[in-house]
Amino acid sequence: MNTIKVWGNNVADISTEVASNEKTTKFAKGRIACNRSRAENAPVDFYSFVGFGDLAESMNGLKKGAFIKVTGTLQSNTYGEGESRRTSYEIVAKSVEIVERKSKEPAE
Predict the structure, then answer these.
(1) Residues 6+ apart with CB under 8 A from 8
(2) Burial of 5 from C-beta contacts in 10 A (0-12 / 13-18 / 19+)
(3) Which domain range does residue 78 map to?
(4) Which one has a higher pLDDT value, 56 or 20?
């Protein structure tokens, strides 16, 4: 089963678009920045994600810096020919949720 869940910061404001070959397929694309661990100065990974239909509508207006959880499937795309052949990876989102950050301050 191909399922991925990532938590992190939304990299840029998101808006909904309509596919150029159709008049009804709505989609929204975004990128999420995820720390590899909770340690300070941990490396950061960036993942592209896309949502379609009603999910794209709910992603519309999501602001840069929002702490989010993206759940979906990981998809690879290959393009180019010969030595210029490249592979990219993208999360096809099933859900995108705004997550409340847990406080780092100790409880009283």
Answers:
(1) 32, 33, 34, 35, 47, 67, 68
(2) exposed
(3) 4-98
(4) 56
Long-range contacts of 43-49, Cβ-Cβ distance < 8 Å, separation of 24 or more: 46/11, 47/6, 47/8, 47/89, 47/90, 47/91, 48/88, 48/89, 48/90, 48/91, 49/90, 49/91, 49/92, 49/93, 49/96
| Strand ranges in 1-108 using DSSP code E only, listed in sequence order | 4-10, 17-18, 26-35, 44-52, 67-79, 86-98
Average pLDDT, the chain: 90
| Number of domains comprising the chain | 1
pTM for the model stands at 0.83
State pLDDT tens for residues 3-21.
Answer: 999 999 999 999 998 887 7
Contact 67, 1 (CB under 8 A): no
Which domain CATH number covers 64?
A: 2.40.50.140
List the structure tokens of 18. 């309509």
